[in-house]
Specification:
This protein has 193 residues and is α/β, with parallel strands linked by helices. Helices cover 38% and strands 17% of the residues. The strands form two sheets. Strands 1-5-2-6-8-7 form a six-stranded mixed sheet, with helices on both faces. A hairpin with a 3-residue loop joins strand 3 (51-52) and strand 4. The two termini are 28 Å apart.
Length: 193
């Protein structure tokens, strides 16, 4: 899939909503190795100003904007950044089950709980590894892929002809230590060898 095709589809699925954040990554989202999947974005830092079909996503500029808006790195963001760093040279993409931002899952409207964008991106990106933090995405992915996802137990599945390794964090990233995230990255990389 080309970035222009992906762009067209994400614009269609989000209605170009300024409150939607389809994903975060550095550069092209296509064929990122690791998909880090949460429930939904917690902050309102916009997606669209940092996305282009020529360069992909400018996560560095997005992070700068995030820090200016939030004043500090929040717990979940801090753990995601550590996981991405520890997973190098594997490329990471952040996906959320729901693309609309809210501080808490329960604050999302029924209309905001649409998984079409997530399902599309999972097939378009084609990651080799899915790291889940949160009960809701674990339940959806388990149902989508027809597998039982247990905490900290790697499981393999096939989705649209691609083999995936899935692992679920012991808790949402907001509630685990930095050391836990580093150990999780090491376990995943060891599993791949």
């Amino acid at each position: 899939m080309k970035l222009a095709e992906l762009d067209e589809k994400i614009r269609e699925l989000t209605n170009e909503d300024e409150n939607s954040r389809p994903f975060l990554c550095t550069g092209s989202p296509i064929e990122c190795d690791v998909a880090i999947v949460g429930i939904n974005p917690a902050t309102a830092t916009p997606f669209w100003p940092y996305w282009s079909t020529s360069k992909g996503f400018d996560k560095g500029a997005w992070l700068k904007d995030y820090l200016e808006r939030e004043g500090k790195v929040k717990p979940t963001r801090g753990r995601i950044e550590i996981l991405c760093e520890e997973m190098k040279p594997l490329r990471c993409i952040e996906l959320n089950l729901y693309s609309r931002h809210s501080a808490r899952e329960r604050d999302l409207s029924k209309e905001s709980r649409n998984v079409d964008l997530f399902n599309f991106l999972l097939g378009a990106v084609r990651p080799r590894i899915i790291v889940i933090h949160g009960k809701t995405p674990a339940k959806h992915i388990g149902s989508l892929l027809g597998v039982e996802i247990e905490i900290e137990t790697p499981v393999t599945a096939n989705y649209l002809g691609m083999n995936l390794m899935i692992i679920r964090s012991k808790r949402h990233f907001a509630f685990v230590s930095y050391d836990y995230v580093r150990e999780l990255a090491e376990r995943i990389k060891t599993h791949l060898e």
